[in-house]
Specification:
single chain; alpha+beta; eight-stranded mixed beta sheet; about 25% helix; globular; binds ligand LP2KCY5N; binds cobalt (II) ion; metal-binding; EC 5.1.99.1; Glyas_Bleomycin-R_OHBP_Dase; MMCE/EMCE_epimerase
């Protein structure tokens, strides 16, 4: 695995949260994207080498809606950049981690993604990300 690709933060209102994070980080939201498959609206901010992904649910069955209902707004996942997502998925499976899909899915920002169940990663939802350009 390479660097942290982004930190995902679950928010109830992406416009309000975007304004707060713009002030906090002294930068602007550079991109928004709706990912229907995940039931989320996203907004991205960059601070130094770090990327923040704000996530608002687009329907009540979305993972983000369930998370906020249970735990409230806050850090939802940590995503790591990988060179070869299928190889990394295979490695993690062999190490006993529980993957949440058999195949990579298309995420935001032109990435292939796969999630590791938080119960198998010390209570943290982990996302693997491979740039589609890396394929
Ligand atoms: C925009 C696309 C993409 C990107 O490109 O970056 C994204 O980031 S999409 C982000 C949203 N999508 C996902 O999170 C997909 C993966 N997540 C899931 O499949 C589910 O959320 C889950 C992790 C399997 C949990 O779903 P479910 O089992 O239905 O929910 P429960 O509420 O019953 O949770 C079970 C258990 O797990 C704990 N939990 C849930 N979410 C998290 C979390 N984010 N971090 C830590 N722990 C989490 C939850 O509290 C439950 O624990 P117990 O109460 O102890 O049983
Ligand atoms: Co993410």
């Amino acid at each position: 695995m390479n660097k942290v690709e982004h930190i995902g933060i679950a928010v109830s209102d992406i416009k309000i949260a975007g304004d707060i994070y713009e002030k906090l980080l002294n930068t602007t939201v550079y991109k928004t994207e709706r990912v229907e498959q995940e039931g989320v609206e996203t907004a991205f901010l960059q601070t130094g080498p770090n990327k923040i992904e704000l996530l608002q649910a687009t329907h009540e069955d979305s993972a983000i809606a369930k998370f906020i209902a249970k735990k409230g707004e806050g850090i939802h996942h940590i995503a790591f950049d990988v060179d070869d997502i299928e190889a990394e998925m295979q490695r993690l499976k062999q190490e006993g981690f529980v993957l949440l899909s058999d195949k990579p899915k298309l995420g935001a920002d032109n990435k292939l993604v796969c999630f590791v169940h938080p119960k198998s990663a010390n209570g943290v939802l982990v996302e693997l990300c491979q740039s589609v350009d890396n394929r």
